Amino acid sequence: MISPSFHLLIKHCCHNQWRSLLFRTIIVINQRQLSTIENEKRDSQKQEKEIFVQSQNNLIQINTFTQKDLFITAQKIVKDTIYSLVIITGVVTLGGVCYLMLHELYSRETPHGIYKEASKICLENTDVQEALGIPIIVHTTPQISSMRVNNVRAKTFAEKGHRSMTVSFYLTGKERSGVAAVKVEKNISNKFVYDYILVQLDQPWHHQNIIQVYPNLNPSSSTTNISS
Q: What CATH class is the domain 111-221?
């Protein structure tokens, strides 16, 4: 029969073993929890670092893209500005050329304008009509059939403080031909007025080789008046 003291001893030993086992279990659990917390903490720090690094990389990429976009935009603006200036310059140049051409064709104060007016005066002069024989052809080159561009032969110069100009052209009629010489000068109104209009004949007519169209010494020989 087991004595009460032995039984108490056994009970006490079992209790101590149970307490020791429980203590070790608690320690192991605490160690695991601490390890898990540290791992989570390290993972959290690592994740934060990765997020920070990624944010920095994204910021660098954004800055790089922004600078690149600004550079491309600046290049486009410069190109558009250059193209616009080229187009504007071309339009202005074309407009200036068109203005000069129209002014040369339709303005009286040009060699072409004086040529048109003076040739009309010569054609309406009765002495010129009788001397050359109608019909009369007016041309700016010696040969009527010349393929050259009909440029008016003119010379401008200063005389006595006034701008003067001489114009010459050719007249060919049925009987004779001649060369018209015209001289004009600017008046105080900045308009050309005639100094003289002469026609030199290639063959004598009524014992004369030159017909003075203006100043007209014979009022009945012309139907056109020129005011100076």
A: alpha beta
